[in-house]
Amino acid sequence: MDRRITIMGYLFLVGLLLGSFFLSPMVQAEETGDPPLPEKLMVRGGWAYVFGATVNAGVAGPVLGLGTTVDFTNTLGGRSSTDAFRVDTLYRFNDRHALGFSWYRVGLGGEKALNQQIQIRDNIVAAGAATQTSLSLNTYRLLYNYSFYRNDKVELGVSPGLYMMRTTFNFAAQGTINGVVNNTTLVNEQITLPLPSIGFVANYNITPRLAFQSRYDFFYLSINKYTGAMFEFYAGLEYRLFKHFALGAAYDRLQASLRGDGNQGFNIDFSYNLAYVYASLYAF
Q1: What pLDDT digit, counting tens, does each position of 154-164 carry?
Q2: Which residue of 15, 166, 171, 229 pairs with 138 in a disulfide if CB–CB is 3.0 to 4.6 A?
Q3: Hey, which residues does 89 pair with through a beta bridge?
Q4: What pLDDT, on a 0 to 100 scale, did the predictor assign at position 28?
């Protein structure tokens, strides 16, 4: 199943690249002599389809409320796909420097009668208990782009940034809990994790109106008892329909792993693919 989902993401990306190949000659013939297009301020928003989402979480202390490692999809019946909304902005101070902000939320839920015993906080939930679970990942991202190479066709840059990931976990169960038949338990937990990142930007103007855009963000940090790693890949095509308006489609893949040791230790591994269709407004 995971392999098929990954192949879907790759096919989506290949489709974008093939689209650029076939559209380029037609679009370029229409654009000879066009004046430079505005790009100082960009506001982008659209619908996204999230697929292939996986979440594994476990906690020794109170974070997220889970006492043992739990597979969100297989153990709790969580969905691996959903709809989402995403917003990206970018303001270019000049040809070299730009500041951007992004927000996107991935919300997953599910219901299942447990086929194995799990621990939630201090509660032992027996197999057969009915459960309802929801998991929300809100990602806020602030980034700075420095374009060390830029001309009419190509832009290459480095992009340090900060991810703020707010994770909300809600769990309800009814069944045999701590040996008591027909018992209930509720868990509502929220944590916010700051993740500094370093990225690489590679954009290519196939024609003055058709552009290929990509970025690659990385994060790895180990301080005292905490370790975190993250990778995000984004690639898409955008076509400028009018001077101040563009349409685009993109593929995004995010993977993250967070670890904490000790009595308050935790571990969270999650990943998802995102197919993104959007509109962009440009000004100045």
Answers
A1: 999 999 999 88
A2: 166
A3: 43, 101
A4: 46
- What pLDDT, on the 0 to 100 scale, is given for residue 249? 97
> 3-class DSSP state for residue 87?
strand
Is residue 107 helix, strand or coil?
A: strand
Give which of 173, 184, 189, 185 is closest to 111, Cα–Cα. 173
SS3 annotation, 137-159: EEEEEEEEEEEEEECCCEEEEEE
Asked if 145 and 100 count as a contact pair (C-beta separation under 8 A), the reply is: yes
Burial class (CB in 10 A: 0-12, 13-18, 19+), 68: middle
Choose the weakest-confidence range: 57-61, 116-120, 152-156: 57-61
Q: In the chain, which ranges are E strands?
A: 41-59, 70-71, 82-92, 97-113, 118-120, 123-125, 130-150, 154-177, 180-205, 210-223, 226-242, 245-260, 266-283
Phi, psi of 115 (to 5 degrees): -105, 10
CA dist 161 and 198 (Å) reads: 6
- Sort 173 into a burial class: Cβ within 10 Å, 0-12 / 13-18 / 19+: buried
Decide: 172 and 131 in contact? Cβ < 8 Å.
yes
Backbone angles phi, psi at 65, to 5 degrees: 80, -5
Whole-angstrom CA distances from 270 to 12, 125, 141, 143, 257 are 21, 23, 17, 22, 7
Plot region of 7 (φ>0 → left; ψ -120 to 50 → alpha; else → beta): alpha
- Is 58:70 a contact under the CB 8 Å cutoff? yes
